[in-house]
Amino acid sequence: MTRYRDFHRRSIDNPEAFWREEARRIHWHTPFGTVLDRSKPPFARWFVGGRTNLCHNAVDRHLAERAQQNALVYVSTETGIERHYTYAELYGEINRMAAVMRSLGVKRGDVVLIYLPMIPEALFAMLACARLGAIHSVVFGGFAAPNLAARIDDAKPALIVTADAGARAGKVVDYTPLVDEALSRAKHKTPHVLLIDRQLAPARLTAPYLVAYEPLREQFFDVHIPCEWLESNEPSYVLYTSGTTGKPKGVQRDVGGYAVALAASMEYIFEGKPGDTMFTASDVGWVVGHSYIVYAPLIAGLTTVMYEGTPIRPDGGIWWRLVEQHKINLMFTAPTALRVLKKQDPALMKAADLSSLRTLFLAGEPLDQPTAEWITNALNKPVIDNYWQTETGWPMLAIPRGIEALPTKLGSPGVPSVGYSLTVRDELTGEPCAAGEKGVLTLDYPLPPGCMSTVWGDDKRFVSTYWSSVPNQQVYSTFDWGVQDEDGYVTILGRTDDVINVAGHRLGTREIEEALSSHAAVAEVAVVGVTDPVKGQVAMAFVVLRGAQADGDPSERARLATELATTVDRHLGSIARPARVVMVSMLPKTRSGKLLRRAIAALAEGREPGDLPTIEDPAALQQVREALGDGAKK
Ligand code: AMP
């Protein structure tokens, strides 16, 4: 472990010297002066005064050496389309997109909201923003109109880029009606909406704000738009994530620190070399998509594979065939996808030639032991679990194989990555825990390059949310429980807050509760996460109905349960839909009126909640038990 220990210690003891070296990995148009500005903790500014550009580093910089290498391989099993773009072709497409955006008035510092399915234009649009110095905010295509409206009002975009439709598992989802509804709900008036017409659904070009992309692209076919050289700490993007309040937080990222951190992670963690091919099966709407479909592989000169479709269509062998066909070297997905694949015919995996594949990376949710064992044996290649968050932008815990191929330990994503000063702390005293003791995972100041710089438009929220929850210490809380062993390996033991993780996607139970409360029949509601064999967790809602509705007959209550689940679809999108809606006449609460969510979750998982000295009325627990039993009988 000496090499890793030495690397890690240097990165913590003298971050300035460590990251000054790492910064050589990217191109600086103007060199930086101070490596790290610590004058306003907990804010950290990296590579102060340096000017650079993410699009230049991801694309232009490679043109001299790899113009004819594929930069992007796009495969959609939904539409049957496969397209390849060399670095030179990618450069052309990004310039066209940037020119179109500029013709619609987009300039440096403006926000562009990207609401797109997994199509190449999503990547072009992100990099076009980077080129222009505009700030992208990608909203996951599965989110519903009210969700989108909330993000429009917070981000105040100058432009929205969308498509006629997305497609999932053979079903076409019209986007334009959703965008229409979101725009009419939002207070902010977005001047233009740029429409990528995939010809999957009738494109509604009648609304006055809609502009079709294709004719404009033709107009700007041979254009070259110069990169805006941004100061390292200007914002590159805002990505919204759920927290404990109903209001999503805009995670703001910088330019230079992000580029440097991603480039370093490609060597130290992912071992990706120029010319390699990386397939990250995620969505550009999530942080894994931002970092490891778009920016990191391109900054490091790889070919990135972008995939629209599910892992089991046309059959459960599709991903393995992609590995064979495109000679994929690195693959990255979430454990939930593997739990789906595990149920498929093993012959499908065996039939593919997987010799190109070096390593499989997994992140986004806990990797359970049976899945870890299954995939390690089935693939016979290293399987690297890695732990991080939207906020950090790149792995906090992993096996840094590019530094030292430390052994993996089942149940642990590994050891702290370079730059992360990670401490498990006692939740009551804030003191560091001994090895083997459970506590809250925290990061000491400063966060390394690449991590969030603030909450978009709300510096106070950055400090009050992330840096104020551990007693007596100004440290960053991950809001995850963990335990570290003698060798430094950390095991994650679940969230400390009311955030749940459904199929690798983070959802705030408060957001789902707010969606349900908007229904006239609902008096009170508690949403909890319950263990699920495939999705890791699912949401379950416990609802107290208003007077008359509460006495309704069972069929009426069943109808209402479905209607309530649909309400969540409409407000947040189907990913947030509760797996079950259970009617109760009261909810377990403390005497001070706080919902006892953990007790409810325990009952829903068939466990006893243990001692609850602060409970107001123990009869409420019995109510929940009975209501759950009713459901089981049905
Ligand atoms: P998100 O910001 O949506 O990526 O969610 C981040 C959260 O997912 C973390 O705070 C953890 O609770 C969980 N998470 C991510 N990766 C892992 C992992 N490898 N093992 C366990 N939990 C994880």
UniProtKB/TrEMBL annotation:
Chain ranges passing through the membrane: 111-134
Domain AMP-binding enzyme C-terminal as annotated: residue spans: 511-594
Methyltransferase recorded as keyword: no
Pfam families: ACAS_N (PF16177), AMP-binding (PF00501), AMP-binding_C (PF13193)
Single Gene Ontology MF annotation: propionate-CoA ligase activity
Every AMP-dependent synthetase/ligase domain range: 61-443
InterPro entries: ACAS_N (IPR032387), AMP-bd_C (IPR025110), AMP-bd_C_sf (IPR045851), AMP-binding_CS (IPR020845), AMP-dep_synth/lig_dom (IPR000873), ANL_N_sf (IPR042099), Propion_PrpE (IPR012694)
Acetyl-coenzyme A synthetase N-terminal domain: residues covered: 4-58
GO biological process, one term: propionate catabolic process, 2-methylcitrate cycle
Alphabetical keyword list: ATP-binding, Ligase, Membrane, Nucleotide-binding, Transmembrane, Transmembrane helix
Listed Gene3D superfamilies: 3.30.300.30, N-terminal domain of ligase-like (3.40.50.12780)
Stated family: Belongs to the ATP-dependent AMP-binding enzyme family.
The protein's name in its UniProt record: Propionate--CoA ligase
